[in-house]
Amino acid sequence: MQFTTRFLAILGAVLASQPVVHASSLVSRTVEKRATICNGYAELCERSYGSLAYVGTHNSYAVGVNQLSANQDHNITTQLNDGVRLLQVQAHLENGVIRLCHTSCQLFDGDTFEKYLGTVRTWLDANPNEVLSILIVNADNVPAGQYAAAYAATGLDSISYRPPNPALGYLEWPTLGELIDSNQRLVTFLSTTANQAEVPYLIDQFTNVWETAFNVVTSFDCNVNRQNGDPQNMLYLVNHYLDKLLLGQPVPFIERLNETNAASGPGSLGEQVERCSGQHGRPPNFLLVDFYEYGGGSVFQVASQINGVPYDPVTPVARPQPTSAGTQTSTPRGNNAQPFVQGSHLVALASLFVGSVIVAPFLVL
Ligand SMILES: *[C@@H]1O[C@H](CO)[C@@H](O)[C@H](O)[C@H]1NC(C)=O
Ligand SMILES: *[C@@H]1O[C@H](CO)[C@@H](O)[C@H](O)[C@H]1NC(C)=O
């Protein structure tokens, strides 16, 4: 019974993906261009995109150390090289331009979305056997057409997956091999304003992907927190980044990252995955984390376990950047963000209050 359903789902996905291949080239394409390695593993080529787990970086562009607004400390090229396969971004509209900011652009400005997409394009071109996903948190409800302009400017529109229906059941997704063979290797979800009749590759998130609670400060649960469809049939994402409250504001709980990102143990990613797999009868698809490299690759180990493949990287993942504990000042890394120098945490805190961001960043020493 289960086999039949799965077989039909896969068959459906195969048939649905046919229109993108011209009839005249169909035979040669299927014979000549057949990926044998997909996202690093031969075994994954035959697996549906929707049956797999991917490590994702929460606010992937918010790179820095000793900044309360940073969620990562390595740039997205390093993230991708290390195995991250979902890049989450928070997009804001500033003077008519889409920029990647955290809460507000005065607080953290990670440059334009188009520049970010250019880096993604470069990486995808250099890694033709990889399927990557982007999740856009559309904080200012920018229309889909404006995102489409940035995709077109970087050529990413041409390698983006266009689902045959606005909402796909989690087993209706094509296999990684099909996405790679048809060079539709970028899957983008947009949290609001998706209009797939107009821009077919900016996929509505909440009819396709549900999420667990975010900004968790206690313990991670597996309840459906945000969705706009039937969760049983959707992909799902766990927000596995622990915050602590500083003057009532959630900030990354850096001191707990080793345990939070671990493959097992109390509060770990492995523990949440196990709990969610039990509660929902299948593991999550997206594991969204802060400072992914804490744990020395443990987050990738968890994804590999879900996918049934070994985690055996050729080179170890990047190491955490030193934090203010051992240094006098901080250095901004790869972005335009205002650094929060050690000793001016009060300023940093003040600027976390969105109402006061206009003046606060200029007070930074
Ligand atoms: C990303 O970081 C790596 C390692 O620090 C560095 O070599 C590379 O130039 C950076 N790439 C970009 C696009 O900033
Ligand atoms: C995390 O673990 C690494 C490796 O064991 C260790 O060097 C580091 O100090 C730990 N960091 C924290 C914040 O506990």
From TrEMBL:
UniProt KW Signal keyword: yes
Region listing for Disordered, in residue ranges: 313-337
GO aspect biological process, one term: lipid metabolic process
Keywords attached to this entry: Signal
Record's keyword annotation contains Signal: yes
Signal peptide: 1-23
Biased composition, class Polar residues, residue ranges: 321-337
Any Pfam family: PI-PLC_X
GO molecular-function term, one example from the UniProt record: phosphoric diester hydrolase activity
Matches recorded under InterPro entries: PI-PLC_domain (IPR051057), PLC-like_Pdiesterase_TIM-brl (IPR017946)
PANTHER family (UniProt xref): PLC-LIKE PHOSPHODIESTERASE, PTHR13593
Listed name of the protein: PLC-like phosphodiesterase
Organism: Coprinopsis marcescibilis
